[in-house]
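Hi W.,

Here's what went into the run:
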Amino acid sequence: QLQLQESGSGLVKPSQTLSVTCAVSGGSISSGSYSWSWIRQPPGKGLEWIGCIYYSGTTTFTPSLKSRLTISLDGSKNQFSLKLSSVTAADTAVYYCARESRIPLWGRGTLVTVSS
Amino acid sequence: EIVLTQSPATLSLSPGEGATLSCRASQSVSTYLAWYQQKPGQAPRLLIYDASNRATGIPARFSGSGSGTDFTLTISSLEPEDFAVYHCQQRSDWPPYTFGQGTKLEIK
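Here's what came out:
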């Protein structure tokens, strides 16, 4: 059974780069029919879809974060990653990874806090 | 970017009552709409995909309907564990796969 597990930088200082990785187990990330997404949720707020990557390497980002966002995929490690640069307190959130498909599958999320 | 508007923002009901939650899209998403349930401190749980298909393990009291721009999540008879926040998400065509702002279902 496919499972996704996020791990992140935990606490990041303002202006630095936030990094979160999603490890995929129970299946191959190289399966070409899926895309792999990141979603975040600031404390007490709603869900925000951030971006996704296909196995081909094609990425799509939400416009508001496009200039600061990098999503990459490592097939050899069966994982994909998110990097968000120049962070502020507004980037504090639980970050979720997901396999996009007709039936989406999510990880449990990891909290990343931006604070000095 | 497709905007999803959920209503009401908060719904106050008692166990045993029925609940109707709405999600409206700014343009057609066909039936590419999902519903999630989220409880405090937990990740969202998929309830409904493709507008009307229940995910694995979801009780029959949950049902989804709609197509195009108007969608409904119905809970036929509320159980105590159903009080949570409900999110809709459109997955039409190409990303971004936007979410609605959520409906909080609270105990009256």
